[in-house]
Structures
1.
Amino acid sequence: MRRGLSHAWRHTLSVNIIPRSSWGAKPWNGTPNSVGLSERTEFYIHYDGGTPVNRTGNWVPKAIEREHLANGWAGVGYNFVVDQNGSIYEGRGWNLQGAHCPGHNRSAIGVQIAIGGDQAPSDAALRSARALYDEACAKTGRQLSKHGHRDGFATECPGGRLYAWVKAGMPTPGGGGGDTVALDPVVKPGANHPQVRLLQELLIKAGYGPIPGAVTDFYGVNTQAAVARFHDRHPEFKSAGVSRDVAIGGRGFAALQKEAGR
Ligand SMILES: [Zn+2]
């Protein structure tokens, strides 16, 4: 689904994550494998299961931890857990292999939204899950594909409501931020930054390629040429008084995401 541009793109994408040390996680049972951000290409949404979850707070990750340790796993198998208050708890985090969907535990960031059955996810929970998705895209410099657990495994998970939300593109409830990734102000011609990868992918997808050498972190002359082509088609996003604008701006970056069908 194509969504309208949000009125405000955020300058920073940082999301507030409650670390394992703060929610009282037990030490890992063994040592989970590390996974580089460069391996992450997918984002998987889960739910808790068949029974509604009527508690929030540290109880939520602790209950999951108990269950996953009993499975013989290292600890919470999801990368992150989100409760109905929108609090985000660290599980495997950004850099450890998950245990949430066979065949996708290295390639995917797995997030459990702590509801069950036909329970409705709160807006706060959906906002936090979407913020995690945007953060994951910013960190990896690419658009991760969006999935429910059932896309990768024969399961009811993540339930009908969450699955429909995933298939709708994981929209932020009520809009107002989170729909588009904000341009990091350091992303300028000549810069080396992971977000340049996303810029290049969007430019290519929207038809402003080719970008020889892409995709890389480097905002070189070929990326600049593609940005200039974008500005030729959309002079409203050009800097004033510049005939050939090779620097993407915040508004242009947001519009490019829409044009590329992000
Ligand atoms: Zn699942």
2.
Amino acid sequence: MKVILYMAMTANGMIARENDETPWSGIEWKNYAKEVRKHKALILGRRTYEIMKKSGEFKRVGNPFTVVVTSQSIKSDGNCVFAISPEKAVSIMEERKIKNAVLGGGASLNASFMKSGLVGEIILDVEPMIFGKGIKLFAEENFESYLSLVGIRNLSKNTIQLRYKVRKV
Ligand SMILES: NC(=O)c1ccc[n+]([C@@H]2O[C@H](COP(=O)([O-])OP(=O)(O)OC[C@H]3O[C@@H](n4cnc5c(N)ncnc54)[C@H](OP(=O)(O)O)[C@@H]3O)[C@@H](O)[C@H]2O)c1
């Protein structure tokens, strides 16, 4: 199974304001929703799951099958199940014969997946903004990763999308 990390970020690599706000362009939201709808499978950190649930975002992305990674023991909730680790999240997806799943953040889970070597592809939508403070693309963790650029396109005059393959070392 391939895990596709998909994040919108500022030009300096912030994925949200300090207060969790994500003021992305309409075209970015549309592309994110399109990618999630295509694969019908989403992996989220517990904080991002709670933010999306509160703001009613699951409907917008087509109510995909969702695995939420958490150290807590939480009962499954509709289309959402809970997993104790990135490895467990991937094995739940594989049991369902899911070929591609979108890893939808946030910073802490992104870093956990990179550290575990479980990300196959990365899509970054770069918005024309800079936040001096905020939530970084990856929480601080001890990992390095090497990428191949496989695509670059304009989503609009101001927003670009970068696609990378994660090289196996
Ligand atoms: N720009 C974008 O595209 C985008 C997308 C998504 C989110 N965001 C932003 O990202 C922010 C949230 O990121 P965040 O880093 O604070 O939270 P997060 O990654 O969404 O969730 C963190 C939680 O996930 C669980 N977790 C992470 N790694 C784990 C592991 N290896 N094993 C077990 N559980 C693990 C833990 O849950 P427990 O505490 O329950 O154990 C942890 O507290 C928000 O501001 C959100 O708006 C932006």
3.
Amino acid sequence: MFRKFLKVADACPACGEELHHHRADDFPAYLDIIVVGHVLVPIVLAVETEIAPPMWLSMSMWPLIALVMTLGLLQPIKGAVVAIQWYGGMHGFEEAKKARTASNGSFSVTAP
Ligand SMILES: [Zn+2]
């Protein structure tokens, strides 16, 4: 669903579902900071108190790990935020939700 790292494609390449009207804005980055912070900070505290690696190692290792985790999680989190908007029929996804729930009143996805 992405045409670039964080650019959502205008439509799904598989089923044609329109995605251009999503409004993820900066919520994925906000969630990314929360997730990486809550996972990494306890690990940093545990390692620094129990093992106490040399300063040069701490100063190079933790920023690198934080960068890799942040960049690695940003796209999946953004995908999840767009998916939640799609599932909930938020913003421009209203018509798509009505269309897929109109037939039997429950959740279903059909290929074109
Ligand atoms: Zn699709």
